[in-house]
């Protein structure tokens, strides 16, 4: 234990475990505590969890004289548990400790941090218990110290509960920091993540923090509403202008400022009277700003609110009441307009929540009743009338209709649905009445998952934001120091006017907060990801958005991506006088347990021809080759010709010409046989998607250097498909590991590569590529979770749109960053030259933020087919 806490006075025994039994206990001079030494973990202390105050009485082993301590070590607040009200106690798990010395090193290092009251590291359990003063020390500093020592904080030991809060009033990106610090400092809170783009805050806590979080958020000047099941407990249907608490003070402040300025301009009132009106405008418009700024200062966060408060008060201090009132009004107006534009941006995703009805007509025990969707259970039957939105994910048990799936998949044409087909919550039933058997709870349905994944994606920082974060980290403190020097040095050492240079220092304060720069990337990412989601493309984060825009090569899986993925048996050639029904019966029996599309084509053929499938046992799927199973005591194989030749050592010399002819026609050849005999040849073909050729042409048009087909099919089949598609390279007869090697080679030669497949069978290749894109992910949970980008429908035409949207987003982000930096540079020069005024600086700061937001919001209006630039 550290020297700060070596006397905890906790428990009847004070036990120390050391590797060296002859230790002199320099770190523990606790007096007459009973010591136990064991060879084992280097430094482990065990105490009870009681905090002992001045009336401590623990029996024979704990002889404290609380009036005159005779301990040899520093006996501060940590001793005997005399913690201040700001002390936070936490237990965390440390990953990376390999010996007892690691525990000792970690304990000593953390104990040296100012604000740590006590720390105890248990190597055996990999736990660290610590108490620290949250007014002196941020938990993030402790985490960084742990990482700097080469360890990682794995988890919180206490039971965890995550709560999501909707935050009203966040209009600038540094609002996130203003909330994360005070909420994170709450005793029962383990972790806080503020999603500025979605106006949400996720809090991980011990289950008792929700009211404290809401109160803390309210004190910081915002409003928090707890969400359950993805929906807020209370929804405010009022317009932005009625529900936002900034609108009225801003309007009144602006009115008073305008009246005072007009009366002063017409010489209708005296300067002193107008100054009173200006001061009143400052107070009304600036009260909320000052309160938020002071609260941020208490949590050691210097935000724009504090800087503007200082600038306005400073202007009043030197008699520039008009300037001070202008600062307050323009800043308030800018904040309000920023909040309005961001509210519109966030609604692009919140609108998805309104697609699902709040209740549905459910048939239970023969009776139809309206039930809230949260109360609908798996297996319930939901009645959907023509023109209604479908409330739950499920399978149609009765009826047929056309369904508009645009909100989920982005498909513009309604899809025919009949019994057994899957439908999604939020889609629209157009014609017939449907009965839907529910397969997912409302919180787990596809629409809810899309909303959650999109909001999580909007919260992730893109690589371009790293530059912004680093710049902002050093820019604001540097400018604050410069402002202080401007106010002091010229008047003291150069004989210049104090008022003049103090005024310039105030202008430096105004331009010291890089709001426009900080918001330049998030607003663009939020808008782009929201636009993509509305068009059936799920982009899983800013990093994937940027990487997608940088790809120069697109690799395609063939089956199910370039082709429809519904192969059909086009030919069967039985050998050695066997009948077609005989070989189909055996082949279908082997393939009956396989999920591969070609296998399912053979099973479907047997069902269509009413051929009974032979019962099979010991089924084994051999990846990239085929399948095998025992039928009637004989081990049968069905798979690619090269499997029989190279691994089963079965000669195909007698059928070589037939196999080549079929492959040249673009058909996939499957051989049925044993380890010494060939029974039949199956030819299977898959139709090319109608959008494949046009998609490849569009990709070339937007500057994609190369498109490549990666397939396990034979070269003849692959070349035949490629000939119908046009300009696409072919790599055939690839096993899954060969596809990974091909992706790595393409990345080595061409840079960023996107791989598009079904999201499951191509998982290794998708994970290896710069960006992995899953196609037809609406009904596939695995694809939604694992892919970097998911095309919700089986529509390849969305791929050029997604790449074009990403490129446009990158370009707009660069525009925003360059513009923000340019504005700052221009006004810094103007301040030094003495050509700027305080209100001009405020107008430039808030104006640049509004321009950046408006520029980013252009991505919301980008449509499919307009992203080629």
Automatic annotation (TrEMBL):
Residues 1-76 are annotated as: Disordered. InterPro entries: ATPase_P-typ_cyto_dom_N, ATPase_P-typ_P_site, ATPase_P-typ_TM_dom_sf, ATPase_P-typ_transduc_dom_A_sf, ATPase_P-type_domA, Cation_Transport_ATPase_IB, HAD-like_sf, HAD_sf. Residues 11-76 have a biased composition (Basic and acidic residues). Pfam families: E1-E2_ATPase, HMA, Hydrolase. The chain crosses the membrane at residues 247-263, 275-290, 474-493, 505-530, 816-833. Residues 88-154, 161-225 form the HMA domain. Its EC number is 7.2.2.21. This is Copper-exporting P-type ATPase. It comes from Paenibacillus piri. It is found in: Cell membrane.
